[in-house]
Task: structure prediction
Amino acid sequence: MPNNLRNPNPLTRRAVLLRALAAAPLPAALLAACDRGTEGDTVEQSSVNVQATSTASATATNAPVETAVPTSTTGTTQPPYPPEPDRHFQITTWLPTIAMNPHLGWRKTSWIASRLALQPLVEFDADLNPVLALAREWPTLENGVLDPNGRWVTWRLRQGVRWHDGEAFDADDVIATWRFATDPRSSTVTTGDRFSLVTDIERIDDHTVTVHFSEPNSQWFDLFRDGDGVILPGHIFEPLIGQDTHYEDEVNLTIPGTGPWRITSFDRAGSRVRFERFPDYWEQVTPEFDTIEVSFLSGDPTSNAQLVLETGDADYTPALEAVPPEQLSELQAASTTGQVVTVPGLGVETLFLNFADPRAEPAERRSEPDTRHPLLSDRRVRQALSLAVPRDQIAEAYGVDRAEPFVHPLAAPASFHGDGIQAAPDFARARALLDDAGVNGGTFLIRTSVNPIRQRIQEILAAAFEELGFTIELDAIDAGVFFSQDPDNPGSYGRFYADMQIYTPSFGIAPYPLEWAEQFRSNRIAATANQWSEPNLTRYANPAFDRLHDQARIEMDPERQIQLWRGMLSILTDDVVVIPLVRRDTLAAISNRVAHAGFSPWAIAPSWNLQHWTVNE
Result:
């Protein structure tokens, strides 16, 4: 695809992130905040400089990034809407923003909006350097604030930070966020592995807290990281602890934050969230944009791309991976208003297999974990299906410079697995496995969300599986329905009323993906009893996997951690729990007036450092 923001060497661009992550054992790098050893890929252009780093100092020193707190604030008044065009930034999203509280709002679009106003303690740039937000220091063994056995960590917090309503940020806000996020009546979605080992958060002083764990916690750094680890204002949410709280409540729509922009209005019906620059923001930086709007203008990613690349009505839109490559190429070639940007992706487009029976009788027994799929319960059938997958064709459906064939369910850190490229399909071996299993046909329903590329993938898989003698039925469901968390929705991917379903899992993708592995644990299986809210949608159960995952949660030795993760991934691969298809890059469109934008694949929301983006004069 013609895109003058790309690295001229596509292999280098595709491989750069995985190579960087393989350069050193990940847990050791995080414990010591040490040099990653490999630079990230920096793509420079005359009009846009898209860097997969946070700031120049992070790249130069590989050290946590901290900007001095200003000694005084201006208290200036920001312009009301309608904003000045050259000082306004328009973001359009493919799903509505449903809340400003990411502990309650599960959609990525909610994270994009909320991250403009709310901040975590820390983020990670593309090279896995810690980038400090509300923390003023990265905990290490050397500075005495990290237990070598992983049972506690002390966070020193920034001083002089104000919430948008004028209240001071302090240790009580961190404690209140933890209590609210883990309160069973809060209906939060961030209560899984992230906080499960926390026994207490101790207030040391106004700007210091110590987090205590029930056992060694190798993921100590992940509690208050990224878009779903943001800190909430304790003076607002502490009184709500113990009460029923839902994302649509007014308190979750207009939250004061500590970020560079404060929310001015939330139009739920029109899915339009507006922000203005916060004059008392703690960081010594003046954002280029006085006002920002995050709007759901179209559920079609192609239409969103047109708003940036064709009409210039928007400055940024994410998640363009679903736009057919030929369409995106045409838009890019003709555009005078914007460009397509690419960030090496962590997502693996995956074919999920149902170990339960989606046709069980009576109807309320469908896909219950104590039923068995008549065909997919046999490992030989699953192996045969995997051997028949033409991953090169699926990569072509995305565009060969946007995706690569991949055989591992987890893309990164690369040190946990190894090379991910697979040879061509082997139909002879696949048929031999089916003969050995005594299987000479059957019917499979493959379900996914509506988008042109996924429908093409369905067709590619259908042709391959039909060559093995199976009858294939295809079903495409609107993305808002397919990914719905509504327990009464029979078309949701959580219910999994199909034999197979296709999507790219984003749950728990992290520098240390313990939450990601929850989707394969025996005690996290989705079922009627838990309203299909648990992450294990395949209904797969293996005590050996659970044991390795339990050990990985407490193991502090970096080399041993790598072996544990390789063991977990080997189980998933050998048992063919899922069938990985391709590793996908992340695509977005951005206005030509942006001169510098910083992206990190480890940050859920691209808005994590929007205050550092610059514009062309």
Remarks:
- The longest helix spans residues 558-574.
